[in-house]
Amino acid sequence: MADSTDDYNFQSSEISLAPLIEDCNLLGSLLDDCLKSEVGAELFNKVERVRALAQCAAQLANKHDGGASRMLSQRMADELMNMSLDEAMPLTRALGHYLGLTSIAELHHRLRRARNEGKNPKSCDEVFERLITEGVHPDDLYHEVTHQTVEIVLTAHPTQVNRRTLQYKHSKIAALLQQHDRPDLTAEERDAVLQDLVREITALWQTDELRRERPTPIDEARGGLHVVEQSLWAAVSSFLRRLSAALKKHTGRELPLNATPIRFGSWMGGDRDGNPNVTAKTTHHVVALSRWMAADLYLREVDVLRFELSMSNCSDTVWQMATDIMEDNRAREDTQDAAAQKLHMFTHPKDSEPSKLPDGACLGWCLHAVTMPA
Fold first, then answer.
1. What is the rounded distance in angstroms from the CA atom of residue 308 to the CA atom of residue 103?
2. How far apart are CA 20 and CA 25, in angstroms?
3. Which of 31, 79, 192, 325 is 20 to 30 Å from 341 by CA-CA measure?
């Protein structure tokens, strides 16, 4: 199987780069407008000059003109060395944002190309078809797929340098690019999309890229859970649906409901590899946070199902299943209430003792009964 970097290889003559170039020019021009108003014309011109020198040097190097390329590279280096820190910081940020926006455009073009081509050579459908063509029996394929286990372990190491705020804005820009591709947009709707892009890019520039405080282990765990919430929760379920559809197409059977080909583990809050800040209290906090996140994600899905499953009639089997679930929940609640009451009586014995005599009881008779010999 080819390496994943092949997805970014746009050198084939059969692939049109015009949409990618248009997206890069669009995002670049919007960032240009933002820089002109944010840093001023003088500094913007310096940014443009550095970009022009770098592009020309790279183009000359590709044309094997090493002498001219080195001359322009040296000129660019002199330009950078003569800058003050107040000028170098926004220039560095601007170049970083140019590269970030270009990466968003490239990823969007990759997805667009996959949709236009219709077939993905790395999809489950294509892989299963190739395996059966090469002689693998459908029953063997079904058995291996349904019994395989891939475990993805999430770590809390801060390898993701981008803040969650920036990741969200990058996702929003990518979604706006996808919306901008729609051919059925009216002129007013397309202008609205462009205005949204202007706002997102302006907010992107005005957002600090760096964390100014060292993240705690709990902060790092929150970052990992953010990946689960924003990416994995939807991506894994979507992949399993495609896997089930491909499996049914080539073997006649869907992926069983109880099959878990992908599992997740986590070191977040429990990785004590030389980190003195990860304590038992930290682990307890992260586990509770993870459970809360899981419950919240499931509750969202249940809330969606309440509106999707709006049928007023059902079969006797489904009704009996629902009745059994409600009875089990009621019995479980009764058991929990009884256990909580016993626990309260054990931990608060004074609360369970009577504070006064029952009505009609005689204090003298009670004292006589207590002191009367057996």
1. 37
2. 9
3. 325
Give the whole-angstrom CA distance, residue 246 versus residue 231.
22
Which two tokens mark 75? 């000129």
Maximum alpha-carbon separation in the chain: 118
Which H helix or E strand runs over 150? strand 150-154
Quote the CA–CA distance of 255 and 248 in Å, as a whole number. 8
DSSP 213: S
Q: Which residue has the tokens 């236009």?
A: 116
Helical axes 85-117 vs 164-180, angle rounded to 10°: 50
Instruction: Single out the residue of 248, 204, 239, 244 nearest to residue 98, CA to CA.
Output: 204
CA distances from 255 to 144, 188, 249 (A): 11, 45, 11
For the chain, the first-to-last Cα distance in angstroms comes to 91
Residue 31: what residue type? L
- CA 357 centroid distance within chain: 63
Between CA 21 and CA 115 the distance in angstroms is: 18
Q: Does the predicted TM-score (pTM) go above 0.70?
A: no
Cβ neighbors of 281 (< 8 A, separation 6 or more) are: none
- For residue 60 the two structure tokens come to 């000359």
